[in-house]
Structures are given as structure tokens and as C-alpha cells.
Amino acid sequence: MANLNPFSKVLQKQAGRAKERLLQNFGKADRTTDEDFDLHVKNFNKQQAAVGRLQKEFKNYYQCLKAMQVARRSLMDTVSELYEPCWDGVEEFLHKSDIFNRTFEDFCDNFNIQILSPVSTYMGQFPEITHKISKRNRKLLDYDNCRHNMQNLETMKKKEDTKLAKAKEQLEDARNNFDTLNKELHDELPTLYDSRVEFFATHLQCLFVTESDYHTKDALLCTEIGELLGKLKKGYEEGSFRENTSQLETSADSGVEYFNTKAFPSPISCESRSQANDTKSFKVADSISNGEVKADGDSDVLKAMYAIPFEKIQEDIVSSESASGSTTFSTPTTTIERNASLDIEVVDVKVGSHKEEIVLPREKETGDNKSISEKGGNHVPTVDNAAGDVSPMSLKATAANVLYQVQGTYKYAAEDADELSFDVGDIIDVVEYDDPEEQEEGWLMGIFDGRKGLFPANFTSRI
């Protein structure tokens, strides 16, 4: 039972405090008040909130400084790597870069030691004072409870001296405990509240002095680095870092020699290549007519089919233009008519699993080559060196002016004199506008059936 006495006393105190608090809240019992102490507690709470807010901002500022420290070091490391060893003042630049980083690190350490740590220490005294205030309020409840018990015993008709003496003794103990804590807090709270001025002035002064010292050193260091880079720029302007021009000229000469010998072969080689291609063109026609063109083993034949026709046509154009001295622009209406005017023919050749269109010059129907064209019932043209019946005007118009071709997907009837009319399937040559500023959105300029005019782009599809 003796071990239960401390627990019983604590339980009895808590029950008495709860009862007293309820009576005071319902107005059944009076409450001991102290207006001066209430003012001190109000100032204490305000001061605690202000210091907590300032500590939070200091911590945030310190975290930003640490992030800035990492960013500055990364920047200076990159700049130091880019500063080439052959440049003037490289050793001095690297030395100052290291000092630049260490100066900021010292500033961060000084901020932590001289500002953040003292603020944390100052903030640490508030929880202790808060605990004392709470304890003082509990002792006040005990005092009020003992006081009310004493008043109840004194108002009883039948007074018991034993209970009255015990209640009086408890009242004295409660008063002494309360007075002790109350007096301490009356001394500590005003002192703590008055210290806010010194705290604010000291730590803020330390902050700005530390900032000033750092920025003074940093400004001087940045000035020195700027002067060093100014010398580097001046050396460049004076030509200290220009490349050796003799080496560039030597490399340029060798490049021109290679370009002349490799990129552009001599006329003899071009002539011999043209003769070889003429021989291959006859083999092409025979191979196509006999159905012997395949995807794997006849690569030379396919190359000849693509290379020869246009080389010979271009030669005929040059000779025809030089002889006549003038060129008349004309545009064939369709692809088939254009091929006929150019004296060429498009032949479908099966290569592997797909078909390819091969452009070859059309042979003249003479007695010597009729047998070749009629082999197998299919007309397969071959290249004839004597055949030069090509319309240079049509080819020049196509190569120089026609951008691409479109095919009519819908029938369109011209509404104005400057428009084209066409049916579904008609081929139209698209050319540039005479005046680009007159170009209208959604309209194209084309040539069809010997006329040049506008037509809507959405009525056609590009081939």
C-alpha cells in the first residue's frame, strides 16, 4: 500500500485540478488573476513567434548559400577547364579561381557559426520558459482548489478541527509553491522580452558585416580576374593567338589539287566513258526486249538505262540552241505527249518483286531497226546515236520552269480568264508565279493544254 501513496497523491491532484477547472469555467468558483503576468505571457508568445520566424528565414538563406556554393564551384571548374594551357596567365587564373571558391565557402561557414548557431541557441530557451509557465498555471489551480476547500470547511455548521488544520496546511503549501514559480517568471519574462532589442541588433549587424566583408573581398577578386581576361583579349587583338597562315595555305593548295584531279576527271576520261555508255545502251534495249533484266546480276545494265538518255539529250539541246540562237517556250499537255516530243519512252521493268520505270530514247521506225522494235510483240526503244530528233524547247521548259506535276482529282471549270479548266486525270505542270507577291493561298500556277493560268490546289494531287 505504501507504494500506491505517490500514485494516489498524483491522481488526487489531477482530479482536484479538473474539478477546479470545471467550476471556474462554469462560474461556480472564482479564479485568481494576475494582469501583469498575463501581459508578460502575451509578450513572451509574440517574441517566441518572431524569433522562430527569423530562425526559419536564416535557415532558408543558409540553404540557398550552400546551393550557390555548389553552383559557383561547378561554374569555376568549367571555366578553368575551358581556359587553355597556351593562353596567357593560365596559372594565375587557376589560382584566383581557387581563391574565388574558398572565399565563398568561408562566407558560408561564417554565416553558420556567427549567425545561425547563436539564433538556434537563443531559440532554445523558449521551451524551458514555456514549461515553467505551464507548471505555474497548474500550481495556481492547486492553490485555488485548496483555497476553496478551506472556505467550504469554514462555512460548515459543524466544524472539524482536524480537517480544518489539514486543509490550512495544504493551502500554505500550495501558496508557497505557486509564489515561488510566479516570482521567478515575473523576473525572467520581462528580462527575456527586453533582450529582443539586443538580439535583433547584434545578429542583424553580424549578418550585414559578414556580407560586407565577403563582398569586398569578392569584388576585389572579380576585378583581378576581369583584368586578367582583359589582357587575354588584348593579346588576341594583337594577333598572339592566330593560326599559322603558311600551314593553311599548304593545306589549301593540296585540297585544290585533290579537288581538280579527283572530283573533275579530264575530258578524255569523260569521252571514253560516254563511248562505253553508248555501247551499254544497245545492250539495255536487247535485254529489255528479251525479258532478261533481273535485280541481281544486271546492275551495269540498269545504270546504263538511267545514265545514257539524258546525257545525249542534253548534248542535243546545247547544239540545237547554239545553232538557232533562240528558244521558244512550249509545254506538252501530258506526260505521254511530252515523252513523244522528247522522243523518249518510259518502259516498265520488273526488278525483283517490284517494277521500275526506265526512261529511254525512242528509236525511229526505219528499216534497220523495225525488227528490234517488233520482237516479242512489244516496242522496246534503244539508243541510236544518229537519232537526234528531240524538241529542245520542251525539255528546257520542263527542266528550268516546271516545279512538279499534279493530276486532276476533280473536274474544274475556269471561272475567270486567267484560270485553267481540266478534267479528272489530266496532268498539269506547276510553275512559279511571274510575280511572287500575287500568289494566292490555295491556288497554284500551272500550264495545261498550251495555256498558263491559275487552278485550285485542292482539286489536284501531286504526282
UniProtKB/TrEMBL annotation:
It is found in: Cytoplasm; Endomembrane system. Transmembrane segments: none annotated. Residues 401-463 form the SH3 domain. The keyword Membrane applies. GO terms for molecular function: phospholipid binding. Residues 365-384 are annotated as: Disordered. It comes from Oedothorax gibbosus. This is Endophilin-A. GO terms for cellular component: cytoplasm; endomembrane system; plasma membrane. Keywords: Coiled coil, Cytoplasm, Membrane, SH3 domain. Pfam families: BAR, SH3_9. Residues 365-377 have a biased composition (Basic and acidic residues). Residues 150-188 form a coiled coil. Its main location: cytoplasm. Residues 22-245 form the BAR domain.
